[in-house]
Amino acid sequence: MKNITILGSTGSIGTNALEVIRNKSSEFNVAAMSAHYNHKLLIEQIEEFKPSYVSIGTQNGYEEIVKKYPDLEVYLGNEGLKKLGTLDEADIVLTAVSGAVGIEATIEAIKKEKRIALANKETMVAAGDLINNMLKKYKAEIIPVDSEHSAIYQSLLGGKKDEVNKIIITASGGTFRGKTLEELKDVRVEDALKHPNWSMGKKITIDSSTLCNKGLEVIEAHQLFNVPYDDIEVLVHPQSIIHSMVEFNDMSVIAQLGVPDMKVPIQYAFTYPDRVSNKVLESLDFKTLSSLTFDEVDNEVFKGVEYAYLAGRTGQSMPAVYNAANEIAVDQFINGNIKFLEIYKVIKNTMDNHELHPVNTLEAVIKADSWARKEAARIIKTYVK
After folding, report:
1. Positions at the binding site for 1-deoxy-D-xylulose 5-phosphate
2. Which domain holds residue 205?
3. Interacting residues of 298 by C-beta distance below 8 A, sequence separation 6+
4. CA–CA distance from 335 to each of 163, 208, 330 (Å)?
5. How many domains would you assign to the chain?
C-alpha cells in the first residue's frame, strides 16, 4: 500500500489521479490532498477518500472544512501546501497544482526524500537549477507526469544517456492549429478552451492553444533530462498518439504511444519501475488509425515555443520570467482584459525588460517570479489596448 499526497486534487490531473487510486484501492491510499478554491469538490473527495490531512487556498473554504471535519488536520494557503509536502506518512507526492505555487511544496518534498510525481511544469522551468542541485543532495526522485515527459522518461530507458541524439517533443497543435495571425486576432476565450484531444484545466488549455505549453515543456525537458536545447525538437502531431520520442546515436527512435489519457502517465509515476494492469482504458487500436502526421511549429503565428527557447538559452532567471509573464497574460486573457495574440506581446516585453540574475536559491526564484508578475501587469496596463 502506497500512501499518496495529491497537491491539486480538484484539478484535471488531481481528479484523474483519484480515479487511478479509486481503481487500485488495494494498492494506493490518499494520505493528504489540497485544493485552491473548489472546497465543495474537495469536501466530496474528503468524504470518499478520507485523507488525514487537507489544505485549502481560501479562508471561507478553510472555515467550512474545519467546521464540518473537526478531527481532520486542515491547513490554509501556500503554507498548507508546503506542510503537505513534508508529511512522513506519504510515500509519493503528486504536485498537480497549476503555476509557481507548486515550487515550495516540491522543495519540501525533496528535503523529505519523497518520490515526486511531477505534473507542475513551472517547478522545473522557474527553479530547475535549484531543484537539480537539491536532487544531488537528497535521495528524492522525480518521475514526470506530463504525458510528453513521461514518454521521454520511458523512451530513455531504451539506451544510455551518452547515446541520446535528440529528444522530440510532440504537440497536438492546440485549438488553433493551422490558423493565421489574422484569424487569431479576435478569438474568444471559449474558442481557445475547445481542445481537440485532451480534457484539461483552463490555464493549460490556453497554454496549449498558444503553444506556450510546448515552450514550458522544452525548458522542463532540458532541466529534467540534462539535454542541450539544440538537441530538443518540437513537432506538431495532431493525433496525440505518439506522446514523445528519443532518437539515439545509431539513428533508432524509441517512442511511447498510447491513447490520450492522463491516467496512463499518472499510474506509471505511482508504480515505477513496475507496470501494473490498467483495466479502465481500452487498448490503442492501430487498425483505426488512418495516419500519424507530423509538421513543424509555425513560429510566425505561435511564438510560445520560440520565446521559450530564447528564455532557456538565456538561462539564469529568464525561464522564471517567461513562466510568470505567461501566467499573468493567460489570466488576463481569460478575464477578458487582453486579446489572444497579446499574450505573446506581454511575454516578450517582460523578457526584454528583465535584468538577469542567478536562481540557485528559493529567494532568487521568488524574486524573478515576483518581478515578472509585476512587470507583466504593468505592461498590460500601459501598452496593451
Report:
1. 121, 147-148, 172, 195, 208, 213-214, 217
2. 161-259+284-382
3. none
4. 47, 18, 9
5. 2
Main-chain dihedrals φ then ψ at residue 184, nearest 5 degrees: -95, -5
**Residue 34 to residues 103, 127, 209, 229: CA-CA distances in angstroms?**
15, 22, 27, 34
CA pair distance 311, 319, nearest whole angstrom: 5
Amino acid 333: pLDDT: 95
Residues 20 and 115 in one domain: yes
Annotated binding-site ranges: 10-13, 38, 120-122, 146-148, 172, 195, 201, 208, 213-214, 217
Handedness of CA 45, 48, 54, 59 (dihedral sign): positive
Does residue 130 lie in a domain region? yes
Annotated binding residues for NADPH, written as ranges, equal: 10-13, 38, 120, 122, 201
- pTM to 2 decimals? 0.93
Among 173, 209, 200, smallest CA distance to 119 is for 200
Residue 296 pairs with which residues in a beta bridge? 235
Q: How many CB atoms within 10 Å of residue 180?
A: 11
Boundary of a domain, candidates 98, 119, 144: 144
In this structure, the strands spanning 164-171 and 92-95 are unpaired
Binding annotation for Mn(2+)? 146, 148, 217
Supply the pLDDT for residue 198: 55
Show which of 88, 114, 144 is a domain's final residue. 144
Residue 154, domain member (yes or no): no
> ∠ CA 289-292-296 to the nearest 5 degrees?
160
pLDDT one-digit tens code per residue, 122-164: 899 999 999 999 999 999 999 999 999 999 999 999 999 999 9
Same structural domain, 131 and 177: no
3-state SS assignment for residue 82: helix
Through-space distance between the first and last CA atoms of the chain, rounded to whole angstroms: 55
Q: Which of 78-87, 184-193, 222-231 ranks highest by mean pLDDT? A: 222-231
